[in-house]
């Protein structure tokens, strides 16, 4: 077992607000308690959760779109409900859900043979009771310290062994985006031959959803910036629609030669109603985010008279991460590493993430 240093470098979130709340400093190196492992972090991916939590965008007191305060933070927030589960968090906090590395220490009750294992962290810390209750189920890097550090710890069952030739940085593109996308896709139960439209298709979740739908035999129509079209076609989309098109519903229907079976949405805002309108009778809509705006007008007649199914997708069921790791190990999923930054340059990494000019995921390395 590795002798752990007393101190480590970590990126500390000191409070809700702008990028100035991110401080690179020394922190106590974690020690494993019963049932836990300590991981020497090789890489950790960035996600919208990092931005949303830092800015307290989740707070119901905030009526602004995410992009309006992603760098500077928001004026109207309530610290008591600043997280995804409508609760408060403690500061300083080490964020980072997508940790990849090697187990270097184990707590009581954990097989010492796990030391030396290369692992990916399953970020969903589900309870053994009602795991759909956010009070019982936490998220790595939100309700407890995550992977934006030289070392991190998590319960042993959430450290998933991975056997892959991919680099740590490549593996760090998967956990949050692909478990989210797998849950998003599963909520609509796509069948071979069905047509799926995916918004935000060039981001981490959207690009993952393209691959997961293609593995299920679906035809995919991607909605993204025009500059990403060729990359999305290479990834498996059959058609790409410019996200700035004025008539999104018409463009979807033209690309699909009619209505679509499924809409997977991470954008929300003004794209919501065109997606609903483009669904066929009995169509399914699922969302795991609303980076384009959290408010939308909704014609309830579409829901009622078209027999639609609408679902949200946040907390991932047990076993989701294990399925994703299995697909990584067989080569069924392709890592999309957009850029890598040193951990100390987290502010610059988040600025690049917020700009949304990248394709795939951005990763930091200690």
UniProtKB/TrEMBL annotation:
Q: Which UniProt keywords apply?
A: NADP
Which N-terminal stretch is annotated as signal sequence? none
Gene3D superfamilies cross-referenced by the UniProt entry = Medium-chain alcohol dehydrogenases, catalytic domain, NAD(P)-binding Rossmann-like Domain
Top-level taxon of the source organism: Bacteria
Q: Which residues form the Enoyl reductase (ER) domain?
A: 17-364
A single GO molecular-function term is: oxidoreductase activity
Q: Could you tell me which PANTHER family the record lists for this protein?
A: QUINONE OXIDOREDUCTASE (PTHR44154:SF1)
| Protein name per its UniProtKB record | NADPH:quinone reductase
